[in-house]
Write a structure and sequence with these properties.
Elements (H helix, E strand, L loop, with lengths): L14 E4 L8 E3 L4 E3 L5 E4 L2 E4 L2 E3 L4 E2 L10 E2 L4 E2 L1
Parallel strand pairs: 1-3, 2-6, 3-7, 6-8, 7-9
Antiparallel strand pairs: 4-5
């Protein structure tokens, strides 16, 4: 069993470098993914809370300049700088 990082539990072979404050229940990080991003999994728009999952698929990479928003689905083996 791997350790949770700030409540986020990435897959066993995922590299999780950094994430800004985020609700951990909305992050899905699959095996082999590398994550170094600032997530925005929820916003307050039109006087309401909008929130959805951010899904990082197998072997995908999110670089330090990336900022996936709610509803993002990063495909397998994709690179987002």
């Amino acid at each position: 069993m791997h350790d949770a990082i700030g409540g986020i539990e990435p897959a066993p072979h995922a590299l999780f470098i950094f994430a800004s404050e985020v609700v951990p229940d909305v992050l899905i990080i699959e095996d082999g993914a590398t994550v170094n991003a600032r997530f925005q999994a929820h916003t307050f728009e039109d006087r309401g809370l909008k929130m959805d999952y951010v899904h990082v698929r197998r072997v995908a990479t999110l670089g330090s300049a990336s900022a996936p928003r709610y509803g993002a689905d990063i495909g397998a083996a994709y690179l987002v700088a």
